[in-house]
Specification:
The protein is an all-alpha fold and 165 residues long. It is built from 5 helices and no strands. Helix 3 packs antiparallel against helix 4.
């Protein structure tokens, strides 16, 4: 084997070793991040994250109440989104019917606000039957800003309350 071939093989071996070490290090770091992320409480709307503040049996009852309410308000929200999409879709029409579009957007907003109000009332009805301490924890959890999916960096928001045993 010539000296030149030996030097080429040495550099190829060095490059391959660096690649393997980099890939292993990257996989380890990424794996650690993914593991930490799955161990943290999930983010989302405050009303869903708030369930973590309740004891197990009440947490399940709360989630069941929210699921039932979601089924009731889902059609209102879908109708609201449909009206809003159709209204914005007419923005390019000539002549522009600004008053008609505004009226449709107002109607869509009223439907959405009504649906949100229905959910708020369902949570309130659920909370009426909780002991005072659990009701206080639920209220504190509901008052927290959204952790993920909202605006800004989720790491700058306060943590959700710890789950109760």
């Amino acid at each position: 084997m010539s000296r030149r071939t030996l030097i080429i093989l040495l550099f190829v071996s060095l490059a391959l070793n660096l690649f393997v070490i980099g890939a292993a290090t990257g996989a380890f770091v990424l794996g650690e991040r993914m593991h930490r992320r799955t161990m943290e409480p999930r983010g989302g709307p405050a009303m869903l994250v708030a369930a973590q503040a309740l004891p197990d049996e009440e947490r399940e009852a709360y989630r069941k109440a929210l699921r039932a309410q979601a089924g009731a308000v889902g059609p209102k929200l879908r109708e609201s989104h449909k009206i809003r999409r159709e209204a914005w879709g007419r923005l390019g029409a000539d002549p522009l019917d600004a008053k008609g579009i505004a009226a449709d957007l107002d109607h869509a907003r009223a439907l959405e606000t009504g649906a949100r109000g229905d959910v708020d009332h369902a949570i309130l009805e659920f909370a009426e039957h909780l002991p005072a301490a659990d009701r206080a924890r639920l209220g504190q959890a509901l008052a927290q800003p959204m952790r993920h999916g909202g605006h800004g960096d989720p790491r700058e928001r306060p943590p959700a309350p710890p789950p109760q045993p």
